[in-house]
Amino acid sequence: MENFINNLADRVLSGEKLSKEEGLNILSIPDELVNELVKQASKVREAVFSNEVEFCSLINAKNGACTEDCSFCAQSSKYPTPINAYPLVPKKELVEGAYKAVSIKANRYCIVTSGRRATKEEVQEIAEAVKEIRKDIPVKVCVSIGSIDEEDLRLLKEAGVERVNHNLETSEKYFPRIVSTHPWKERYETIKKIQKTGLSTCCGGIFGIGESDEDIVDLAITYRELKVDSIPMNFLIPIPGTPLANNKQLTPQKCLKIISLFKLFNPQAEIRLCGGREQNLREFHDLAMEVANCLMAGGYLTRAGRAPGKDEQMVRRLGRKLITGRNSFSKRKTVISGQ
What pTM, to 2 d.p., does this model score? Predict the structure, then answer.
C-alpha cells in the first residue's frame, strides 16, 4: 500500500488519470497512512496552485420554503426544521453582503437562493445587484440559484457574474436515495449549460449522507470528465427534522481521504473546504488545508462556521498566501498537460 501511495503525485503530475479501482484503494488506505496520502495530494496542489489560498463568502439571499426534498437540507418545506423562511432580500442587502465578504478578505462572494430555480424576476434583481457590486467592490461575484436556462446565464454574465455554483451532490446512482423531486440529470445538464455560456463552474458534493466509496469515486470521475473549475467539499452536519438527522459524522481520517481523492482525480480544480468542515475535520483542519487551496469563510447557509480570523491564522500558520481583490490563481493550468 505504501508503494501505491508514494508515487501518486508523480503519476498525476505527469498527466496520468487514476482509475476507479485506484480511487477505491485511496479511500481504503489505513488511517495510519493518511499523512502520506495527504503529502501526495499536497504535492499536486502546490504544483498547480503554489502556496495561494482563496476565501469565498456567501449570502443566504432567499431562505427556506423549498419544494425539493433533499434529505440533508434544512430549507426543504417537506421537513419540520426550525428555520426562518424569507423571500429574496432587497438589492441593498445583496450589495452590503459583498462589502462584508471583502471585510473578511474573501476574494469571491456568492449569492445563494433556495428553491429548484430562481424566477425571471429574481434573476433580474440579482443581476442589478451584481452590476452595482462590480462597480465599486473588489470581489468576484458568483451565484447559486438552482437550475437555470441559457438566457438567464447570459444575463448574469453580462451583469458581471464570473462563476455559477451547481452541485451534483453525489453519484448519479445514489442521488435518487437522497432526492426524489428532481433528477440528477437535470443538475448535470445545468452544469453543461453553464460551461456553454462561458461561465466558470463550481460543482461539489456532500459526504456522509450514506453513500458508498464507489459513489464518492464516481462523483470525482464525473467532475474530472466535466473539467469543472472548483469543487466545494461539504460534510454532513445532521440537522434535526431532516431524514439524515441521525447519520453518524465521518471520521476526520475519512474526510482527509475524500479530499485527497478529489485533488488527485481533479488536479487542476480548486478544492474548496465548505460546510461541515469544522465538525468533521476537527483537529485535522490544518492537515486538510495542505490539500485544499480554497475555503468558505464566515458561515454557511443555515449553520454558523468558525470565526474568519481563525481561518486567516491557519493560512498564515501554514505559510500560505491569501489572494484578494478579484485576483486569480497564478499557476493553474500551466503544469499538467493532457487534462
Answer: 0.95
